Amino acid sequence: MVNVLKANRLVGLHSKRATSIVSDNGAGANPQLGDSLIVRAESSRANLELDGFAQLKGFLDPEETSKVRTLVDETLKLPHETACARPNNMLVPLRWNDPIVQLLLRSESRIRELSRAMGADDLKWISGYISIKEARSPALWWHSDWWCWDHAISFRREAAQVAVLTYLDDTSEVNGALRVLPGSHHASTAIHAVLPEAHSRSAEELDSDHEAMKDLPDEVTLGLGSGDAAVIDYRLLHGTHPNSSQARRDCILLSFTPSWRRLPDDLKSHLVQHPALPYETEHPEEAGFNPGLLPTFDGPRRSLTLSRNAPAQFEMSE
How far is CA 228 from each of CA 21, 163, 171, 235, 315, rounded to the nearest angstrom? Predict the structure, then answer.
């Protein structure tokens, strides 16, 4: 298994909090949430709150990982009209009834582990994607995935939305491993002031020598193994190393809200319209999908204006 953190990049920044969480193999498939898994999830919760990310080793067992890898290959043979293609990464959307989503979310122990790791009191699933980093592709620039920076909820300490990235291959600096900037979800850093808007055309046209493409002194590389997962606050600055290998690097990205009941109504109204979620004519309970993971909202639907640029200077007030 690849070492999860590069020690020489932890000096002086959350060095004790950002250590790897070692666990038993195949924890996600264990029908009982044992003491060691509880300890792991509680440690992950502390890491997520303080550093903006956590790691779950063995989130999928080897058999599950192999099944998901086969399903990914089958999915990629189909047309991707709605795929989000960008120069250094492609996202292929998944809906609630996709076999990949069903496989990852059907394990009650895995959901309990996620809830503990996030400190969730009302966990809801919002969306899913296959994230593809092609062979011989450049780095993915520093960015955050948060889309509502003009909303007051952005400046609460707890995460309004969280991404879970489950890797299907061993990752390192050679093949596009995830890199994160600890603490950047709670306070601005110098790099915030020069970043282009995430997912914009200006970001896609960055030169390789732009600051958003470079290594940063305090970055942490998550060299995760096959079946491991990273949990990241949507506000956290992250990117990837180049994939210098000859092979594609895949992961499954699922997004969640840890506390749906405490979200403001305007965010609920926006998120509940995500196309990954069931339409009114679809019946997830008949397909065996856990209805408790699906968000509900009885108020009028409202689409919020996307605001992907973090302020050049900010710090959490609560």
Answer: 11, 14, 10, 21, 31
Contact by Cβ (8 Å): 222, 53: yes
Predicted TM-score of the model (pTM): 0.85
Chain segment 190-247, per-residue pLDDT in tens:
999 888 766 555 555 666 666 777 788 899 999 999 999 999 999 999 999 999 999 9
- Adjacency order of strands within the sheet including 140-143: 140-143, 238-240, 178-180, 220-222
Distance between terminal CA atoms of the chain?
A: 38
Read off φ and ψ for residue 27, nearest 5 degrees.
-60, -35
Single-letter code of the amino acid located at 79: P
Tally of CB atoms within 10 A around 147: 19
CB 37 within 8 A of CB 27: yes
**Contact predicate 128/276, CB 8 Å:** yes
Separation in Å, CA 315 to CA 13, 134, 259: 17, 36, 22
Q: Which residue has the higher pLDDT, 40 or 245?
A: 245
What is the pLDDT at residue 216?
87
Angle at 165 between CA 170 and CA 61, to 5 degrees: 55
**Of 302, 273, 300, 299, residue with least CA distance to 126:** 273
Q: Give me the architecture of the 7-293 domain, per CATH.
A: Sandwich (2.60)
Letter for the amino acid at 153? I
pLDDT tens, position by position, 80-90: 766 676 667 88
Which residues are bridge partners to 249 per DSSP? 133
Q: Are strands 249-257 and 89-94 parallel, antiparallel or unpaired?
A: unpaired
pLDDT at residue number 202: 54
Q: Could you give the CA distance from residue 309 to residue 269 in angstroms, rounded to a whole number?
A: 21
Instruction: Tell me the C-alpha distance between 291 and 31, whole Å.
Output: 20
Mean pLDDT computed over 1-19: 32
